[in-house]
Amino acid sequence: MAELSVIVHGPNVQDHLTELLDSLAAHPLPDAEVIVAAVGDWARETAEHHTPDVQVLALPDGTGDAAARAAGAARASGRWLHFVHAKDGLPAGAPRTVAERVAELPGEVDVLLLDHVRSTWHTSGMPSPDGSLLARAGRADVALDDCAPLLRLTPLLGTRVLRADFWRAHEPRLTTDDEPYAALAALLLADRVACLPHVAYEDRRLRPASLPPVTPEQRYGLVERYESLIDLARDRRAAHTVLYDVMVRDCLRTFTRGGMPEEVAREFFRRASLAALRRRPEDYRRPAGLEGVRRSLLEEGAYTKYRAFQAVNRTRRTARSAVRTRRRQVGAKLRDHQYRRALGRPVNPNLAVFSAYWNRGVACNPAAIAAKLAELAPQIHAVWVVSEENAALLPPGTDHVVPGSRRYWEVLATAKYLVNNVNFPNAVVKRPDAIHVQTHHGTPLKRMGIDQMAYPAAAQGLDFQALLERIDKWDFSVSSNSHTTRMWERAYPSHYVSLDHGYPRNDVYYTAGAADIRAIRDRLGIAPGRRAVLYAPTHRDYEAGWTPRLDLAALADRLGEDTVLLVRGHYFYGGAASPLTNLRRTGRIIDVSSYDPVEELCLAADALVTDYSSIMFDYANLDRPLVIHADDWETYRTTRGVYFDLMAEAPGPVARTQEELTEILTTDAWHDEGAAKARAVFRRRFCEYDDGRAAERVVRRVFLGQDEKELPPVLPIEERTPAPTPQEATA
């Protein structure tokens, strides 16, 4: 029996079925089957071109979606069913990710919920609004009553993977051509559901002009759909309340944007009004503000008043928009004038502008360079670009400017040196006598720069032409090893000079002493003698938010009282509520997601557990144990793209499951001879130029203009002495 049956159903609309089947054929699954319930000759002929990879079930023209799904399900042998409409798509690696996830679910789970992207006839790969909901629900299975907000997910059957026995038990209710009804009913009928906060489906919206016109009865059917669903949720208070809210919102949106003829609009409003009164839960309170007014008018059935209310709002919005546009234009014109005037002044040879991580503060390679600059060339004044919300966190006495301010444009226009670990805004002009230094902020495992073009999940929202224009402003690019130098030349092709001097942020791994390490561990509350394991996973382009991929409480219990877990979420999720809030227990799990600098965390840790984060390359400088937790390597490699096979060239033991990770950390495998050999090979390759004097080399070369031959030579790796281990520091 297959684990997963992918049931492709429907006609070959606008030849999208060909693309879908091609993507499935490109990534065959060992434990899954593909059944095409092909409606019509074109769909059948298209599917037959892909045999024997797919089973083709030919259905006559005119067969509805519900009947096609039922026919495909009847043929399926998998324990789980994934219904995929022929017009839609499956991102690369998605079926494998789904198959791996359902294989680990307990038997009481009926539905697995997926994230998706949206494409239209003129756009592709737009993120869905569902990611944050799925991320908040986490990876544990839940009863719908405990997570009723999941009913707000986009009602797509393709984002629900159904247990086959569950489908068969409820087939009469789920076999309907009203797909949104089936998608919501599946949740309401399920005992337990689980979430996969990965993009695993592509909802393709066809151009409305290419589709049959929507009939009045189809409009009215929206109201009937929700009333039927609320009947299913009658005895479930939380679900009833959420569904009612969704119904009213959807009805008002359809009425407002539907473009219906007058008589159809009146009748739709009347029916929606009756449903809003009939189905309103007890003690339900309307939202405040304009939304509350809209709902009040709907419940009154006040069609004429509602139309008048719409007209007033349109007038108000138009006026406000005109005022905002004018203010923006005036502000932009003033800023542009100020910047252009500043560009006419001479470049200040003793002014350097620094920024890191999109203006987060004093951090990373720029911070290490600025510190060494103050020591070797104190006549050069450093100014940091820092966002307004982070300005209060700056070290005392740090001169800084806030983006958009008058002085911000003045220093950017007149500074001799501009140093960043990302990029300055597109509007920044590269003056001929100014020097731009790109320090980067990691060694590349994942594809970067223009190499992301082939990976839609990574390339969302990227303007590659603008990227190339920013690259052309670089004078220097900092590198920590020859692998990085080659990859930067490929990902960022331009005329800059590569500074093969090491990453300045890694100097501290050779200059920190025992007293420094003891002080850091004291600040973190790590008692002497306890092992500290730093867990630092990376960002995934196919996830909307951060859901820890480990059961951290269970891992802490297995590791015992003598181990402390330092857990650091990726900085991309810095504005989100931490999923670790309820896991801080007896000092054995410490959320260090907001702790800066990260280098101190590395110094405090006896071992690092990560997945694909560039922190592994930095931590390797310490020559301490490294463990890779790679439960979704195939998905990551396929969706993001990588420059080398981490599974074959890992810096230490590799765990593919939590159980394997626990086994490694509770035995000697994390620091045995095999782990040390793997780390030595990795360290020699990726810590090539890091020896504790990288910042000095950069400052002397860029700011003091010294020739490369005058710089401190890079020490051979066997002659370097990393900072003492925590065990040595606390002995």
From TrEMBL:
Keyword Transport on entry: no
Keyword Repeat attached: no
Protein family (similarity comment): Belongs to the CDP-glycerol glycerophosphotransferase family.
Compartments, as annotated in UniProt: Cell membrane
Identification of the protein by name: CDP-glycerol glycerophosphotransferase family protein
PANTHER family attached to this UniProt entry: TEICHOIC ACID GLYCEROL-PHOSPHATE PRIMASE, TEICHOIC ACID GLYCEROL-PHOSPHATE TRANSFERASE
Pfam families found in the cross-reference section: Glyphos_transf
Topology in the lipid bilayer: Peripheral membrane protein
Location (main, coarse): membrane
Keyword terms of this UniProt record: Cell membrane, Membrane, Teichoic acid biosynthesis, Transferase
InterPro entries xrefs: Glycerophosphate_synth, Nucleotide-diphossugar_trans, TagF_C, TagF_N, Teichoic_Acid_Biosynth
Organism: Streptomyces olindensis
